[in-house]
TrEMBL record, chain A:
Protein name stated in the entry: Succinate dehydrogenase subunit C
Lineage: Bacteria, Pseudomonadati, Pseudomonadota, Gammaproteobacteria, Alteromonadales
Its job: Membrane-anchoring subunit of succinate dehydrogenase (SDH).
Residue intervals passing through the bilayer: 32-50, 82-103, 130-153, 173-192, 213-232
Keyword presence, NADP: no
GO biological process, one term: tricarboxylic acid cycle
Amino acid sequence: MAANSLQTKVDRAVNTDKGFAHPLWAARADKLQSLSGVLLGLFLVMHLHFESSILFGKEAFYQVAQFLEGGIFSETGHGYPLVTKIFSCFMLLILLIHAVFALRRFPTQLGQWRALRNQMRFLPHEDTKIWFWQMITGFLLFFLVPTHLFTMITNPEIGPHLSAERVYHLNAWALYILLLPVVAVHAVFGLYRVVVKWGLVEQRFAMLKFAKVLLVYLMVLGVASLLTYIFIGRSLALPVVPYVSML
Amino acid sequence: MKIIYTDTLVVGAGLAGLRVAIASKERGLDTLVLSLVPAKRSHSVAAQGGMQASLANTIKGEGDDEDIHFQDTVKGSDWGCDQDVARMFAHCAPKAVRELAQWGVPWTRITKGDRQVIVNAEKVTITEAEAAHGLINARDFGGTKKWRTCYTADGAGHSLLYAVDNKAISLGIPVHERMEALSLIHDGERCHGVIARCLITGELRAYIAKSTTIATGGYGRIYSVSTNAVICEGIGQALALDTGVATLGNMEAVQFHPTAIVPVGILTTEGCRGDGGVLRDKDGYRFMPDYEPEKKELASRDVVSRRMTEHMRKGKGVNSPYGPHLWLDITLLGQKHIDTNLREVKEICENFLGIDPVKDWIPVRPTQHYSMGGIRTKANGESPQLSGLFSVGEAACWDMHGFNRLGGNSLAETVVGGMIIGKYVADFGEQTSLVVDTDLIAQFGKQLQTEVDQLIEGEGTEDPFKLKASMQKIMMDYVGIFRNGPELEVAVNQLTELLERSKNLGLKCKKRHANPELVEALRVKRMLKVAVTVACGALARTESRGAHSREDFPQRNDQDWLNRTLTSWPDANSLRPEMSYEALDVMRMELPPGYRGYGVDNAIAHPDTQKRQQQVEAILAELGDDADRYAKQAALMPFELPEEYQPRNQRFTDTVAKTDAESGEK
Amino acid sequence: MSQARTLTFSIFRYDPQESGDKPKMVTYSLTEAPGMTVFIALNQLRETQDPSLQFDFVCRAGICGSCAMVINGFPTLACRTLTANYPDGHIKLMPLPGFDLIGDLSVNTGKFMRELSERLSLWLHPNSADNDIHRIEAPMSPEEATKLYELERCVECGVCVSACATKQMRDTFVGAVGMMKIARFELDSRDTRTADDFYHVIGNQDGVFGCMTLLGCQDTCPKDLPHMQQIAYLRRKMASV
């Protein structure tokens, strides 16, 4: 009889739900979350680098922007802002996938939230703290990134002057100054976690150190670029005239 | 009071108890286990070395068989063991090892080809056979002729207990954790179960069963310093004593290990000395060569323990807040050797002493290690006095260890004894019916309830913690490694005084549920009876045999003492037990008493020894040279076993020989 | 030897069975002795200052896993924690979170582990045909045996469970101990269960896909088991089913 009840317990543990609750979706959800996260993270790293080309002057940034907007395919060498628009939509989609699957991780009840806070208070632990901040930043990004992306979809023009205008005169700096640290923290530690989570690298502490260095580097890069745009923006007279290549 | 009925009740969820429970459950009997702690925390888990079984897979075990294992065990026991039981054991040990492999134990396996080992502190290269690759390996242990100790790295007890408990879980055997059995329900002839107290809620409960098996381990904690877990307090033995009917056997047979660390008493392996470590006193002087010029630190376990004690008595011990100790110096072995071969010792030193044995000396002293004595049982594990009461493992005096146990035979006894006795317990469960005598149950329940009430509400003034500490100190000081008449007298007198005082225990904490002081009080009264039994047995036995070493009677005296001490406690109000002796029949022995191989052979022979020796020779001569070892054994001393365990053990060498023969024929 | 220090123990006290009792921290002082461990200290406190103090020790040698508690914010085995490790002499003891509290520092890890074992079928499922104990055992590669033992060293102390914020937030999560054991049986060539069978047990939100890689298990395990590596291995394995 006892053996029977044991079997029942074992059976009960076996999940028989349908649809998204089906156990196969547990694996898919985890994979999709990681995959979308890696895409977003790597995109962010590239994004920050491309946009920091402004540090090398307006011309450098202009060329980079035109190139990325598909300038080589146009006779004039000018890119198509539509590319930015489409790409932004695509990133929004990836972001939505990431958010949907990442939401599973959020403490949904007050009890869970309290348990987490208690845990952090009584058993301080670095990776738990990092995850906590990732969760907080993830939550903020849920609002900040779509704001940024909608701007890019509705107003996709990118250029040394146009971007600077957006940053300075249209007050996007306020968004970016929030977005930059939040997204950098989330992306860098997210990438670290994915690597560790799937066992891609065994040297975890080296990885963590690298992540921290990367974070500092991205912050410096981001802040420097942002300041550059602000300076450019301040020097521009209204209405702003798009930058014209010197080449 | 809640009453729970079952077929087989097992008290103690260590290896021996769980193995009996499994045997019973597999026969379809309702089975229930009580345990002080979660099963996997039982003291079996602490065994690190391994278990002996004559598999003869490794080249260093070549030629090993049940006969040699049997002989080693009997010699090790200083001829104090029950040879029938030693035979049953040696025969079933390989079966137990193989069964455990099927239950999940990741036994360390043999790698074919050359490998370097250290024998007598020298590097030796041995070559394992190609065909032995992947079979179960064995290591060397003290007192054995062959490498026979099967192991899993440095955690044999852990692997075994986990595999056996997992098996029990898979069979759905319930373990009632944190339940302490405190009295046996019996009518003087038949045991009906136990009254137990829940350590969480304080509830008293009756467990009524066809058979009750005590598998509660040893009684090491009646000593102040013991390598045993803190739960090894001899309550199982006390349960039997309290019946007034059941007997305990050879309670004075207590083993001490030379090198446990101070203060916590955790063992450092004999390998430290085997590899070249030395013992030093408070002046840093290496004293062992003065006592044992030939074998020095590598004299046998009991000898080293005795010499260390002798030296500390001369005031040469290092004083510490935890009493005097000596130093174990392995610094001379060097970092590389310690890091690779003595990793475990290094970890213990780091964690418990905060020292690095590569640079620092390790504080050690001889420490209580194993209880050979226990609840006396017949070869089927049942008490000769109380039907339905069984005992197994260290708790029992099944008596395969006599007066000294070999390393690797304790872990083996738990599972081998468990599988054999488990069969007999299951037979008993099938052949008898449950007896329910509600008046009797109520009577025993009330008795325990009164005892608890008395402690909580009574006006007693004695502190249980202090009484226990006093008892432990007396045992350590006077019933330790060396014993002598006057000191044992002192011990018996002081212990009986404590026993008297234990009637006047009073508690500061008046809780009826989870109350550590109440637990201590209930135990200390019982432990004191066990301690008195050990001291009385030691005082009465005027000879030295195995671990029982009398300074005033240094000879082994087969003429007067080739017997087993039996103790019972018929009068609950008395301060002393009743003792009697059960002679060992030399004329039935397969291996008549002889020289054990240590020190001078000064034993006083038994009158039958020579007669039996001649008889043995005559029997063997009559059989002729054609008789195989099985025939010889059967002619000398036939022994019983459950049918299922009677088949012979196949060995790797048998198959190699067979294949050779077969291919030869073709 | 220098003058002995006076240690200050701040100990969580609460008896859930005592009506009206409230959780509180109680402070005790004790003179330190050389080589003192938290095991020795707690026993001295019980014997000399407060006989009602509840805690669990069994082997007191770091082998049985009974005595895990949170010591100054770090969950670990109390028996092998030296008081000398705390230079300021202040030692704060809390019971392991995530388990039923019996009282004070005593928690019911045994009940938890047994239930986990039943829920995940944490025992070897051998081929039943292969069970003749009188014949030579089936060979196993020595490397496999070594690897199995390395994963089997878990002592079920519960530290990984208490250190896991995921587990604290979601009660049904199996935790590192459950996954380490699954990994152990998954590796065992004697076990007949397939990857699909294991997926049924841990391929879900309460199993390997519920783990958020916070690594509390990895950073606190007193036996230094490779939790991070094994959970990652299981995740990859289960994700490819």
